[in-house]
Write a structure and sequence with these properties.
Blueprint: H1 10-15, E1 23-25, E2 34-36, E3 39-43, H2 47-59, E4 80-81, E5 84-88, E6 93-94, H3 99-113, H4 132-140, H5 150-157, E7 166-170, E8 177-179, E9 195-196, E10 201-205, H6 207-220, H7 228-231, H8 238-255, H9 261-274
Antiparallel strand pairs: 1-2, 2-3, 3-5, 4-5, 6-8, 7-10, 8-9
Helix pairs in contact: 3-6, 4-8, 5-8, 6-8, 6-9, 8-9
Length: 275
């Protein structure tokens, strides 16, 4: 199989039954996501996570509020071919300014998966991911030391115990909810149900996904900081989840080497509001 950066090769496309389709790089997905006809291909997250997630989303019941793309098997049956996994292509576009709608869709998704047990790969004894996002998540929840940074010191001083039970959550909702209008729908004048895509499973309070979306919307997409409270009006321990979400995002930027004066200026109003 070819390198991930170069896109799926002809053998991968044949494995997923789309060898005769034109390959198109999609926006988002760190530039590593491709469309071939009605199939989207992306690098998989390892056999354990990929096969578990595909099994869950292949059977998950959709509602009038959300849907998810269905995973696509190879012609031989597995969910993976080399470094790649495949998913049903769904129409729509992310709109990060529609944060209230994103949170509403995310809440419906989280209710639909609330009954699922914690998978073994998310157990406390399992090996922990060492990518910047996985490390920053642990830091925001007191499971690892935060980087030395005055802004993070302020947020850590505001940490309080969170008693809301944890469950499976989607921790990166804002850019991963697709909205489709009537022009995209299979039935004219009937907009498609929003789609939740690219689920990185984690085990946190369900409201943490909404808090990350709210923080991202304010820091990066022009949503007023005064809307933070209303976005989570029905979420238990919302203020504390916002503090953790902000610490998570700032710690991630530190680990990526992207925390600079411009990033600090973007985050400062939210830090002042929460800490």
């Amino acid at each position: 199989m070819n390198t991930v950066a170069g896109g799926p090769d002809a053998g991968t496309l044949r494995a997923f039954g789309v060898g005769d389709q034109r390959l198109e790089r999609l926006a988002g997905g760190r530039g590593l996501t491709w469309r071939a006809g009605d199939v989207v291909l992306r690098p998989h997250d390892g056999a354990t996570v990929t096969d578990w997630r595909a099994g869950v989303l292949a059977e998950l019941a959709h509602t009038s509020t959300f849907r998810t793309p269905r995973p696509v098997r190879t012609v031989d049956g597995p969910w993976r071919a080399g470094a790649w996994e495949a998913w049903e292509w769904l129409p729509g576009r992310a709109d990060e300014t529609r944060v209230a709608d994103v949170i509403r869709v995310g809440n419906a998704f989280h209710r639909a998966i609330a009954h699922l047990d914690r998978p073994a790969f998310l157990a406390p004894s399992a090996p922990r991911p060492e990518d910047p996002w996985g490390r920053a998540d642990r830091m925001a929840w007191g499971e690892a030391r935060l980087p030395d940074e005055p802004t993070l010191d302020r947020l850590a001083a505001a940490f309080r115990p969170v008693r809301t039970p944890s469950q499976l959550v989607h921790g990166d909702l804002l850019g991963n909810v697709l909205f489709a209008d009537a022009a995209d729908a299979a039935v004219p004048a009937v907009p498609a149900v929003p789609a939740v895509i690219d689920w990185p499973p984690s085990w946190r309070p369900a409201g943490f996904g909404a808090a990350v979306a709210a923080v991202d919307a304010v820091c990066w997409h022009g949503v007023p900081v005064t809307q933070l409270g209303a976005l989570g009006a029905d979420v238990a321990e919302w203020d504390q989840l916002l503090v953790r979400a902000l610490a998570f995002r700032i710690a991630t930027l530190h680990l990526l080497g992207a925390w600079d004066a411009a990033a600090a200026a973007r985050h400062r109003p939210v830090v002042d509001a929460l800490a």
